[in-house]
Fold:
Amino acid sequence: MKNRTLVLGTSLKPFRYSNIVIKRLRDSGIDTVAIGLQKGSVADVTIKTENVFFEDIDTVTLYLNPERQKLYYDYIIGLQPRRVIFNPGTENVEFIKLLKENGIESEIACTLVLLSTKQY
Structure:
């Protein structure tokens, strides 16, 4: 069963939402992997800077604007996650359509809110 989350667009800056989400995911016991522009780590999660084929990805949570997402369309679809979460500012009708065509759910939501309300 898939149960891993990929945080795409991770920042090393502790005040950025992607950084905070990783900490909350790990605090909730959720297996988490991350891709960002800079190598480093957040909590116990090592940030990769290249598209790694992670296995068993259930959820991809996006922290990239729609223009930057285009570089990751094929990558994300290839991971075959159950869902992709579009956090505020990442909404992308074009990508949502592609995901649907490939049998992948999409959700326009805030991962932090989903976690805090036990809806994740």
User: Anything to note?
Assistant: The two ends are 16 Å apart (CA to CA). Residues 17-27 form the longest helix (11 residues). The chain has a mean pLDDT of 96.
